[in-house]
Amino acid sequence: MSESDRPSNEAGSLHDESVCARGGWFEEFTTRPSNPPLYQTTAFDLHGVEQLDAVTSAAEHGYIYTRDGNPNHSAFAADVAALEHAEAGAVCASGMGAVSAIFLSHLKTGDHVVAGRILYGRTSQQLGELQRRFGVEVTFCDANSPDALSSAVRQTTKLCLIESISNPLMEVVDLPAVVTAMGEVPVVVDNTFATPCLFRPIDHGAAIIFHSASKYLNGHGDVMLGVVAGNHHAVTRVRRITSLFGLNANPFECWLASRGLRTLPLRVRQASQNALAVATFLASHAAISRVYYPGLSSHASYEIAQRLLPDGAGGMVSFELKAGESGVRPLFRKLVETIPFSPTLADVRTTVSWPAGTSHKFMDPDERRAWGISDGLIRLSVGIDSVDDVITELDAALNQLP
Ligand SMILES: *Cc1c(COP(=O)(O)O)cnc(C)c1O
Predict the structure, then answer these.
(1) Does 101 contact ligand 1 (Cβ within 6 A)?
(2) 242 lines ligand 1 (CB under 6 A)
(3) What was the pLDDT predicted at 1?
(4) Which run of H or of E encompasses 388?
(5) What is the number of structural domains in the chain?
(6) Range of the structural domain that residue 310 is part of
(7) What's the pTM?
(8) How confident is the prediction for the chain on average, in pLDDT?
(9) Is 167 touching ligand 1 by the criterion CB < 6 Å?
(10) Does residue 60 sit within a domain?
């Protein structure tokens, strides 16, 4: 065929409706695109029933329907699996989609989960739903207390779920100790805050990791995406669920995240360095009563961070104002032009958030306070903008507080 595979219509035999509705693609060529093309398609045309059989039996490599798989899914999942030292990966529509896919593929009524006490608020909330509505039992415990963990294990325990660096108090989990305490129980790690550039849970014995790829992996604040990685068996189970329950990702989100991932090590290294400088500055500021950053010796996880995160403690810093909750609104108003209040994290720019009103809003307030997440806690996501500017802007805003 000619340059494009569009059938000729020189004789005018096709109606305009057909020319338009069918389009001109597909063009076959032998050079490779330098970057992965975007396969923004619902389905893939088959040469016939023979090819359908060949693809479904895996005799031939192909894609059929994007809910079941798409090359942009595969490209991003494979990169993340490689970074995490995992055998395989699978994408999901969001980080919460990844949590759902792991639970739905590994749990049934009557099963038991051991979970870290402090998790992303929505993850705790999802565990609560499983408990109340689906008869899954959950024990929350301090992830850094091996005794609490091992005494929580029952015959029916199917999973242990923790965060490598917990949100929002930045506790670093001593993963080797957790894996030992859990024995045969697979440990699932939310590695969103650490990223594989700072910490690879699978190297320390985790069975499955997942990310909100909406955060560092994409890193540009323009994507909703989740990803799971682990061994072939676990990931196959997860893929079956993402396809069956419709949790799969959009190809365009994967395409964007694949591009974002190209600079992940540079971004994480810089954000981590900047965060240490910002945390050090905040710790000496008169308006601040407490700083949570595992790279500071004042943090409860400092020793663990020194051992497990030798390349940096990440870009996330939390702090409390001496003024408490009453200082939050004035501070955010002062910062609005420079360090915006944005209830996400891991953008290239520095942003600020308020866990009690956003990520941890759905927790019982008394429980939330008891776990150390005060109503005045502020969480900074330090980006790769100039750390000198960020410190100057924070200083100016803090100095204007009543
Ligand atoms: C944001 C986040 C999630 C949820 O991910 P979404 O992509 O927003 O669904 C889960 N865990 C952590 C630690 C997060 O920061």
Answers:
(1) no
(2) no
(3) 39
(4) helix 387-399
(5) 3
(6) 264-398
(7) 0.95
(8) 94
(9) yes
(10) no
